Every structure is written in structure tokens, then in C-alpha cells.
Amino acid sequence: MSDVISALLAGAIVLALVLHFAWQARRSRDRASAALAADEAGVRAVVADADNVSDGTAGVITWEGSWNSQRVQVRTIVDTLATRKLPARWLSVSITEKVSVPAIFDMMMRPGSPTTFSNFDHLQHTLPKAPGFPAEAVLRTDRRGTRFPQSIIADHMEPFSKGRAKELLITPNGVRIVWLLAEAERARYGVFRQAAFGDTRIDSALIERLLVSLSDLRDAINRSERQAA
């Protein structure tokens, strides 16, 4: 009889564990769905026609649409590279319209390790900095000897005064700023190796501020090129 009771107890424990894990998984999916819905609402508050065009890449959500008659992209990226002390969640905001520059201009703040959102580490040529750029910034390009309107770019550094803007990318096909949304909760990551970012959500006011900054920069570069022609 004792063997039967022990078997029943063991079965009950296993069933309880299975039900508990199933409940946790369902709760995690529900929270992820709610977080995605909240982020999407934040994006669409600024980019009304934003469409989720994510391709299934783990940790990356991408929206595309139009803002002020310009094509734009908003993306969140979870960066879990082992070289980082803590996983990070980045916000990438881009205007994907033509810019009058002859090559890639990439400004990275405090570059110290590879990232999942940028090809900065693959750019071979470091540019000298004109006055007005942050001291922690490093400038690179893909073409040696290329000249950029650095004085104009330096006049649009306001987003980088807060310490959370990480990258400014300017290419002939658009402009982008990458912003640090959050770092993973240290205690949870240290124990469970899970990248949890609490209640961090996309702020529509931040998206709009970055788009305005990018639009002003693009307009200034293109206007300068037209005047020089």
C-alpha cells in the first residue's frame, strides 16, 4: 500500500509541476503579447500607418510607415552578445529617404564591443572629428578620403547630450539614430540568464523627437549640397 501511495504522490507532484510550468509559459506569452501591443500603440501614435514587417529574427521587431511625407522605420533590438555586461534593448529610428552624402558616415558613442544592430566594426576608415562632436564619439566611413559636412552634422548633436543615444548613421539612402531603451535586470539575468527589461515601453514622444532631429539633419545636409551645386 505504501508503494501505491508513494507512486500517487510522485504522480501528483509531477502533474503539479507540469501545470505550473504550463501556467508560467502561458503567462509569459500573455505578457509578451501585451508588451508588443503597447509598443505598437506607441509607434502608431507617431507613425499612424506603421506596419509590423518583422521577419522573425529573435529579439527584433520592425515597423515601417510614413511620417511627415517621409518613409520611416522604427525597430527594437534585444542585444544579448556575450561581450556585453548586461543584455540591452535598443530603439532604432530611421528616415529611409535620400541624403546627399557620398558614402557611409557612422558615429558611434563609446565603441568598446561589437553590437547586433550596426556594421560600425566593419568600417575600416576612421575620420578626424571636427569641433562640436562629443568627446566619446568615434567617426568611421567605408571610403578613405571621403569628405562629409561635419560642421552641419555637429550642429545636430542634441540627442547625444543625454547619454543614451548610441549611434548616428548617415548613408546615401537614409539617416538613423540608435537609442538605449533599457538594460536587463541585473539580478534576474545573473541568476536565470534571462534578459528581462521590466516595464520598459516605447515612448511616442521619444520617437517623434528623434524623427524631428533626423529630419532636420537630413534637410540641412541636402540644402547645403543644393547650395554648393
Offer a concise description of the structure.
By secondary structure, this protein is an alpha+beta fold. It is built from four helices and nine strands; from the N terminus they run αβββββββαββαα.
How would you sum up this structure, described in words?
The relative contact order is 0.15. The termini are far apart. The radius of gyration is 23 Å and the shape is elongated. Mean pLDDT is 83; it is low at 185-193. The protein has helices at 2-44, 150-154, 186-192, 204-228, and strands at 51-52, 60-67, 70-79, 88-95, 105-109, 125-127, 137-141, 165-171, 174-183. It is of the alpha+beta class and 229 residues long. The chain has a nine-stranded antiparallel β-sheet. It is built from four helices and nine strands.
Q: Round the Cα radius of gyration to an integer and report it.
A: 23 Å
Q: State the separation between the terminal residues, measured CA to CA.
A: 96 Å
Kindly state the number of beta strands.
9
Helix content: 25-40%
Number of H- or I-type helical stretches: 4
Global geometry: elongated
Regions with pLDDT < 50 over 5+ consecutive residues?
185-193
Strand content: 25-35%
With strands numbered from the N-terminus, the spatial order across the biggest sheet is: 1-2-3-4-9-8-5-7-6
The chain-level mean pLDDT equals: 83
Major sheet details = 9 strands, antiparallel
- Strand-pairing-aware structural class: alpha+beta
SSE arrangement, N to C: HEEEEEEEHEEHH
Helices, strands, pairings?
Blueprint: H1 2-44, E1 51-52, E2 60-67, E3 70-79, E4 88-95, E5 105-109, E6 125-127, E7 137-141, H2 150-154, E8 165-171, E9 174-183, H3 186-192, H4 204-228
Antiparallel strand pairs: 1-2, 2-3, 3-4, 4-9, 5-7, 5-8, 6-7, 8-9
